[in-house]
Write a structure and sequence with these properties.
Elements: H1 2-45, E1 48-50, E2 58-59, E3 70-71, E4 73-75, E5 80-83, E6 87-95, E7 101-110, H2 126-133, E8 143-146, E9 152-155, H3 166-171, H4 176-182, H5 186-195, H6 199-204, H7 215-218, H8 221-235, E10 239-242, H9 251-262
Parallel strand pairs: 5-8, 9-10
Antiparallel strand pairs: 1-4, 2-3, 6-7, 6-8
Helix pairs in contact: 5-8
């Protein structure tokens, strides 16, 4: 009886080891991603930008312990950055992280209340302007005047939908505590959804605002983009950067959204 009990426990232990192997693999994947993100953030803070397509090994002597010494990046002095309510590009060249020059010198000024449409062929540097404004891409020289990060709201073509309730989709990245602190009620959120023609989404959910779903699968492409516009109305930033954010929305609703935003 003792031997059979030991053998049974041994078999169970081996089974647990086999099952945990997959969990360890998942953990290894997550830790690798976090390590890569940590290295990228360190490089950005030091004005170093990794080359994705063109590789060149260089040695970085001031890399902290635990960081890889073999990297593929180039350094830049960077543009002078000034914080203001205006957005001003003064003699700022636009380079991709690969070092490709898209525009030699960019100059323009936008003030609160102005509306600007940027158009052009693929690869000409439209989205690059936003990345430089958000300090995701390097501004090698010139002077960049921009508002603080909390006054600018970026909406991409494919908005991010976090895990959580329907309410979380509208208030992202705020929490419920932030909503209460601002004095926003579910009725206010319902008015926002009505403005972006999404009131039917709240009505069709059994739990209403507290409904939990995989929203990336539940919502259609146009509904996702209108959800991002609902976030814009909720946050009311000084500037909104809209990067083809209504490409999947019908023309009539698209016209309504832009008219409402301008008003």
């Amino acid at each position: 009886m003792r031997n059979s009990s030991l053998l049974i426990n041994l078999a169970k232990a081996i089974g647990r080891l086999v099952v945990s192997y997959k969990e360890v693999q998942n953990l290894a994947g997550y830790t690798t991603l976090i390590n890569e993100m940590d290295e990228v953030l360190y490089d950005l803070s030091n004005g170093c930008y990794e080359r994705v397509m063109v590789t060149q090994d260089v040695s970085i002597n001031d890399k902290p312990a635990g960081k890889s010494n073999t990297v593929k990046k180039h350094s830049t002095k960077g543009a002078q950055i000034v914080f203001s309510d205006d957005i001003i590009f003064e003699d700022i060249p636009i380079y991709s992280p690969n070092g490709d020059e898209l525009i030699s010198k960019m100059n323009f000024k936008i003030q609160p209340g102005m509306h600007l449409l940027i158009s052009g062929p693929n690869g000409c540097g439209k989205s690059s302007l936003f990345r430089i404004l958000g300090e995701l891409w390097p501004a090698k020289s010139g002077k960049l005047t921009k508002p603080p990060v909390e006054k600018v709201f970026y909406i991409p073509q494919r908005p991010y939908l976090p895990r959580g309730s329907l309410r979380d989709q509208v208030i992202y990245p705020h929490s419920i505590e932030d909503v209460k602190r601002r004095g926003i009620t579910d009725e206010d959120l319902a008015n926002i959804m009505d403005n972006v023609k999404l009131s039917h989404v709240v009505a069709r959910e059994t739990d209403g605002w507290n409904a939990h779903n995989d929203w990336a699968d539940v919502l259609s492409g146009g509904e996702k983009q209108r959800m991002a516009m609902a976030r814009l109305i909720y946050h009311k930033p000084l500037y909104a950067i809209l990067d083809e954010c209504t490409s999947a929305v019908s023309v009539d609703v698209e016209g309504h959204l832009y008219t409402y935003m301008k008003e």
